[in-house]
Structure prediction request, 253 residues.
Amino acid sequence: MKEELMNKMTPMRLLIIIPCFNEESRLKTEDILHFFEQTKGEDYRLLFVNDGSTDNTLGVLKELSQQEDKIEVLNIMQNVGKAEAIRQGMLQNSHRTFDYFGYFDADLATPLSEIDRFAKVAEKKNPLVILGSRIKILGTTDISRNPARHYIGRVFATIVSNMLKLPIYDTQCGAKLIQHKALPPLFEKPFVSKWLFDVELLFRLKNAFDESENKIVEVPVKKWKDVSGSKISTVYFIKAPFDLLKIYFRYKR
Ligand SMILES: Nc1nc2c(ncn2[C@@H]2O[C@H](COP(=O)(O)OP(=O)(O)O)[C@@H](O)[C@H]2O)c(=O)[nH]1
Ligand SMILES: [Mg+2]
Prediction:
């Protein structure tokens, strides 16, 4: 009881990584600054990782960080891909005393306001990982996805859920939180897949922690929308099944 009370009094400290590759035109600087207005009393920080962008992403990020103390920028000179950029962000900051580390997409397909909702779940349930989940629930969530990607995504998610033997609805939503102690087993080694690293994370989590641990909580996001200008090429949808098999045989026990 006393411990519960203590938890309530110590607000969650979060570091959210936002990978950016050529996001100059998609970065919603006003929404980002508004998020900090809305969460003034909280210790939520955003770490933007500029991953060798060839446009002015770095300039936009530097300007943002000058406007808000809680915005940090990590610059990677050469493009390493989303998975590796997030991994670098995690590794370079894992010595810091945040309760949870997370990642969100730069296009704010998942609005930043979800961070606060996730933090409340973290505070209450203390899971190793929180997964944002894009579930349409009439009157409760507002999810707008491109139909083709939705249906391909549903087939994909069902296969992954079976492979993991875990009832997860959505592994690919780009909004997740990870408890500090889970960083080493999840991010120590480079990922074998460039875009399906979320699946690898879940396999690593499953293999590194005991069944009894409160591992994963899925949180339906209130709002999610497809933002045009995706960097995933259509070719990748053909490659993805092969990547998935590679992951399955690498991690299955
Ligand atoms: N670091 C890094 N991030 C990337 C790269 N490509 C895409 N991203 C980021 O990954 C996130 C999701 O990208 P997006 O193109 O919107 O993918 P989609 O929403 O899954 O179609 C955004 O934050 C992008 O900036 C890359 O090569 N490197
Ligand atoms: Mg997107």
